Amino acid sequence: MKKNYFILLFLLLISACGSVRKHNELQKTSIPPEKLRQDVDFAYSKIKEMHPQLFLYISHQELDHKFDSIKKTIDAPLTPLQFYFKLQPVISDIREGHLSLRIPSKSISKKEIRELENKKGMFSRFDYYIQGNRLFIIRNKDSIENIKPGTEILSIDHTPVSYYIERYRKLISTDGFNTTFKPYFLKDLFFSYYVAEKGFQNKAVIETVYNGEKKIYQLKRESKSEADLKKEKENKKRTDEKKINDYVALSDSYNRNFRFLDKDSTIAYIQVKSFSGVYSGKFYKNAFENIKNAQSKYLIIDVRNNYGGSLEEIHKLYSYLSPEPYILIKPSEVNSAAAPLKTNYFRKSNPLQYTFKTLAYPAFFFAQTFSTYKKDGKFYYKIKADKVSKPDKNAFTGKVFVLINGASFSASSILTSKLKNDKRAVLVGEETGGANDGTVAGFYSYQTLPNSKIDLPIGLVFVQPDITPTHTKKGVVPDIPVQETMDDIIHKRDPQLNWILNEIKKEKTIK
């Protein structure tokens, strides 16, 4: 038995190495134009087959024209990456924020992964801000070269940053005609796109300007110190606090935070950076028990820079915010009764996982087959959140404020749209990046274009908050618009939170 185990392990290792090599060879191969046109047709046919509400923001005729036009421009062989830069802008024109090709890039071996794990990042040691076609450093985590926050990066390896911003902005899909989402998402993904194009490099030359003075720096991928490695090891230990607050080792921060903002505990503050779902029930139970015991009058919920996540988590959170029974979302539309079976059940399974999944498949098939129903000629997926739910016994009954911005996306927008519609909260900040009236996500069918081998995840479920639709085709608009500038971020000022605190102070004075 032990011998067979090592043989299986050896075969898996050989298979993985061969797979990396084969994948990387494909990335360098130019694919004939007729094969690429086949991939365009394949992508469009699968999107039309599976994506509900495909023509919510673009007409059928216009989208047909865009896909036909892109095929006419493909008249020479292209690598998968070159093809991606042609096709993804067309898919982004559908204006569905969750619908996007995965950018093809070189795979790295286990040896290369181990080497990178022992080195610091090069660009990831800074935080960034994008304004128009300009890229600024707003935080220098390790004080590299003493580069000051507010420094603008003019070029990378002698190529203007504006070239990359214009190139990458076209790749980002948004929900409808939203204008606030792209600067946030682009600053977070800028160097992911860059590395996909350039590969993992050990050095880069950047030209910068600060207070009118231009400087050139050479960034290097430095080795981690013993102290760094020790800290990383320590951070990986999962304490109860880390579990409940959803600790993220990569950023050395928590996804969830709860505290009181004043000495007498009248103002409670909950920040959620991601609705990951992990231990969320325990977090909200503890937080709202503390809020009730403190008899807090005000609650501030901060979902700025929260790209979304678990529908189950926002359903749980809403149970603590609604004073009466509620329905979080409307029935969720899918394209067909078979849609839940198109989720690529065996995707990315190694032989051992494949065996276990095969044994469990009958149960999966049975559950998914009976997870849909048909009504008025449309198919819907059964979700607990579309039924009447009761408030939690510790539901907050005081005044609620919610902080939002352009990076409040997906589940964050569903939550805030529902709160605004029910007049349960005052929304402060800027328009959310996610749509007010719903989005297509839920779960995905992972398609692979047959010739370029580019992955295309397609959302299968149209999730709508249980609201009266606004039909604005934009994000959730704040009740109180308050902008945050780059200077505010650098100097750790928070005008949006300060507006709420000042408003609460006024109300307390009147009372």
From TrEMBL:
PANTHER family xrefs: CARBOXYL-TERMINAL-PROCESSING PEPTIDASE 3, CHLOROPLASTIC, TAIL-SPECIFIC PROTEASE
Any one GO cellular component localisation term in the record: outer membrane-bounded periplasmic space
Name the record gives this protein: Peptidase family S41
Transmembrane segments: none
Keywords, in A-Z order: Signal
Xref: InterPro entries: ClpP/crotonase-like_dom_sf, Tail-specific_protease
Domain of life of the source: Bacteria
Domain Tail specific protease, first and last residues per copy: 237-483
